[in-house]
């Protein structure tokens, strides 16, 4: 179950990067050209344009989610149990995000969260 949870998280992270990356590829020149360096404080409070696109693609949850999925998958292949708290934390994050923004694909994160919680409980028995 943990292996599938990790794989799902990898797919979610990669999917987010690809889907939003393709939608915001027009800003890549600005990102790598230094346009975001030295932005005024207001741009961080209310990001828009290349800055807003940066925060929903490169600096989004997608990369940590992808890395978490890879870690969980690798641990599962080695037979190492992932603590139940990881599943509960993921579930809480997804539910809070869904309560704030609907519709949202964050609810898909409940699938790997439940798999992780269930796998941890089976290991503890």
Low-confidence stretches: none
Radius of gyration based on Cα positions: 17 Å
- Structural class call reads mainly alpha
Order of helices and strands: HHHHHHH
**Count of DSSP strands:** 0
Number of helices: 7
Strand content: under 5%
Describe the 3D structure.
It is a single chain. The chain is mainly α and 125 residues long. 70% of the residues lie in helices and 0% in strands. The longest helix is centred in the N-terminal third of the chain and has 22 residues. It is elongated and about 55 Å long.
Task: Note the topology.
Layout: H1 2-23, H2 28-32, H3 41-45, H4 49-56, H5 62-77, H6 84-100, H7 110-124
Helix pairs in contact: 1-5, 1-7, 6-7
Brief summary:
By secondary structure, the chain is mainly alpha-helical. 70% of the residues lie in helices and 0% in strands.
List key phrases describing it.
125 residues, elongated
């Amino acid at each position: 179950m943990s292996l599938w949870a990790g794989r799902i998280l990898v797919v979610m992270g990669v999917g987010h990067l690809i889907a939003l990356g393709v939608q915001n590829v027009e800003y890549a020149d600005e990102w790598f050209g230094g346009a975001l360096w030295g932005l005024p404080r207001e741009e961080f409070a209310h990001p828009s344009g290349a800055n807003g696109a940066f925060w929903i693609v490169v600096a989004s949850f997608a990369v940590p989610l992808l890395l978490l999925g890879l870690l969980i998958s690798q641990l599962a292949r080695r037979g190492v149990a992932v603590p139940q708290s990881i599943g509960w934390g993921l579930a809480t994050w997804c539910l809070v995000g869904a309560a704030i923004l609907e519709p949202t694909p964050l609810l898909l994160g409940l699938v790997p969260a439940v798999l992780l919680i269930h796998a941890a409980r089976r290991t503890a028995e």
